[in-house]
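@channel anyone free to eyeball this complex?
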Amino acid sequence: MQIVVILIAASLIVALIFLAAYLWAVKTGQYDDKFTPSIRILFDETKKEKND
Amino acid sequence: MKELTKEQVITKTLCYHCGEECSDDSFRINDKIFCCNGCKTVFELLDENNLCNYYSIEQSPGTTRKYHTKRNYDFLDDEELKQKLIEFSDGKKTNVTFYIPQMHCSSCIWILENLYKLDNGIISSRVNFLQKKLFISFAEKITSIKKIVELLDSLGYEPLLNFDSTNETKTESNYKNLYYKIGIAGFSFGNIMLLSFPEYLSINVAEHTELKKIFAYINILLSLPVFFYSSNDYFISAWKGLKKKIINIDVPLALGILVLFVRSLIDILFFEGAGYLDSLTGLVFFLLIGKVFQNKTYETLNFERNYKSYFPIAVTIKEGNKETTIPIDKLKVGKRIIIRNNEIIPADSILIKGTGNIDYSFVTGESIPIEVKNGEMIYAGGKQVGSAIEVEVVKEVSQSYLTQLWNRSIFSKKDESKITSFANAVSKHFTIVVITLAIIASVVALPNYKLAFDAFTAVLIVACPCALALSSPFALGNTLRIFGKNKFYLKNTFVVEKLASIDTIVFDKTGTITERENPEVEFLGNDLTQHEKKLIKSSVQNSTHPLSKAINNFIKDTDILKVDYYEEIIGKGIFAIIKDDEIKIGSEKFVTQKEDEQTESTKVFVSINNNVIGYFVIKNKYREGLKNIIEELRINYDIALLSGDKEIEKNNLKEIFGEDKKLFFNQSPHDKLNYIENLQKENRKVLMIGDGLNDAGALKQSDVGISISDNTNNFSPASDGILESNSFSLLNKFINFSKSTKKIIIISFVLSLIYNIIGLTFAFEGKLTPLIAAILMPVSSISVVVFTTFATNILAKKKGLI
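replying in thread with the prediction:
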């Protein structure tokens, strides 16, 4: 039955990774604007960033 | 065939830029026709820079430029103001955020994100469409805020500059916190459920006690962040309530969560039980989802505007012969300021130089300008129409006649004190009953301490009003959405409950029950000949006066003649010479040299070659269906009308409102507020419906204040809700629907009480196993959520609201 403990540990780690990904997504503002990106993706031109 | 020609006519007369109807095709480039020079200029600018993609994403995406007047943005060179706007700067790159109310389609997003093609200094620009915000980063060496704002303005996206937007970041972090909490609660809930499965399936674990222990301990670990982080809002709110001696709905919830946690810890640590951690995390998870549902807000709308949003940010002052701009909060009594065309007077002042022609539509609702002579008072909130004037400030901005309204105590009160929701009212009795029951249950089992503790906690666990707490947010949240679909936007869900309890409705007149645009125009006199029509239209089309615009719109299908001489005498009328004809259009005194008669309506006289040919009568048009609405509402509610105007139209209004109804005229903003206050002293629940700044006090004071707006992008004063004018005729339905929603909540309360009673019987018999708790809790919550959502939707369909 030892294997069950290992499996559970593994599954928890995987779940934790997803939780971390979700928290990161919220933190970086990916839920700030749930609408504009859906329109932006339809524009033909790719926007170029000018850096100088 | 007929169809086709009709269509051709329509496509022919629509402006390529903004889609407005064009009176003629005098503004055109190749096959593209524009309604005005402004629209044409925008097109040319975009065409030059290869940005015509703007027009291919959406048809006629622009906003009309017909009534646009160029604003002076010199104040944006002021260092202090600039610093207030700039969010970040490292010398190379500077970030600013603008709020752009005109943003309305995907073309807008496209053009605003391609600004760098129009201004070399702009590094990048990004749009948040729902919040109507534009984030720009630019190089300060190449361009400036002033230039960017001028560019935006010239494209028809004039940013709304506001310097006290400090509370916005707060709401943003609030939503983030809620999302974190849900994520963690959901994670723990799922995993604890998984680890509790052996328990649910009653797998014989006698041989695996070790494993069972490990699972239980992992469960404790997983529930810690839920207990200490995700659910902390409930504890904080319950504690705050108790300190004020109020038992709100969060008290029994917090109690339930606490008992679940403690009982589970004791079960697991001392008695090798399984605990109720799955129920605990599930409860918190569902409650938080309810919170998200309830927190639905209309990000694009602003319900908190005060006079500062209408007033200019900076004013031009004159010292000696020098003109400088200073921020409005530094404006002191005695300063001389220059007010240009279409600028708003920020403080009560006296006219020193020039001819004042003041449009007080913000203050009184009446949009026809009033003439002001030298030495006379001009009140804050008025708008100068015509040439620049010089005025001397006699009162500070915050002490002026109109702005004083915001010094009244009602504006400093926090909204929360007004909230006494149904759920909170019930929870008081509920909590007392539950605690009594818990004590009885434990006393009955008393000699056996373990059993007494079990019974006590079991009662508190099953009585945790989870379903109760979820029914309100879902019913009210759904109602809010249904209203939103009908262009009726409420600030939050509490307004729905308050709307259900009103018994008195107070209307404002101008702009609320009458239409703001398109007044009714009628010509009295001999029938106009085609030539006369031409003369009149050619003269009035040069004027920006609202009456001229109304007449211009009234006379259709004529061409325009060349005007040889044109003069607009402010406060009086227009004098024009076209070829051999002299045309005078204006007030009775100006045209006929006779004194003005006091009449029921606004008249504009016309004379051609000193021969008076008649006059135009211009009336405000009542909103469509007004009569029906009032008739419906009269049955159940007390109705009153408060108008800032003179008593004209009193007879018409009596006909609509009924002889016995209260109609008040010449009401100042303060009068309106006082009237509402007096009604409330008589224990009335008042719904105020208004539109302008002059109603701001009354809207705030009333139990529910709704501002009506032709276009939700426009300004509307602080209120509990914004109703788009097209949906005005649905008003009665909205109120009725909110009443039905309240009934639905009561039914779902009963439903959840039944679940509680079922649970209690288990608890009293000492049979509340973790499994039963884990089934009962989600089943009751989900069934209540499903019931409220379906019931509100079915009802809305029945009433024709979806």
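from a first look: The first helix of chain A runs from residue 2 to 27.
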